[in-house]
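pinned: reference chain
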Amino acid sequence: MQRALSESNLDWDALVLVGFGKGGGIALNALVNKLLPKPVAGIILFSPIVVFPHRRRMRQPKQGQEDQAKLFTFWGRPADPSTPDSYCNLLAQKLESFQEELQYTPEIIPDGEHVFDKKSIAALTKAISSCI
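pinned: its C-alpha cells
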C-alpha cells in the first residue's frame, strides 16, 4: 500500500479504507490493533464481521497517532441475517467504548441486505465527504 501511495504522490492521511463483511473486519482489526503505519483520513465499514467482538481491545496509539480515527459503520436493516441485531449492538457498544480513540458513527441502511449495492454507494459517498 505504501508503494501505491508513493506512486500517486499521496500520504496515509489521504487514504480512506473501505471494507465489506469480512473485509470490513480486517480493516477494523488493522485499526484497533494499530497496524497502520500512520493515521488515515477515515475507515468506512459495511456490515463488518469480526470474531469475538466483545473481546476487542484498542492498543495504545503509536507515536504520532494520538488523533481520533474517523470510523463509520453501515448496517443493512432489518433484512441482513449475516449481522443480527445482537451482534451489531455488541460491536457498537465495544466501538463506543473507544471514544477517546475513535470518532465513531454508526449508520443504518433502511431495507438493506448483505450486499454492496446502490444504497451502499450512496452511503459511501456521504461518508467519504466527511473524511476528506
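why pinned: The mean pLDDT is 87. Residues 20 and 116 are 8 Å apart (CA to CA).
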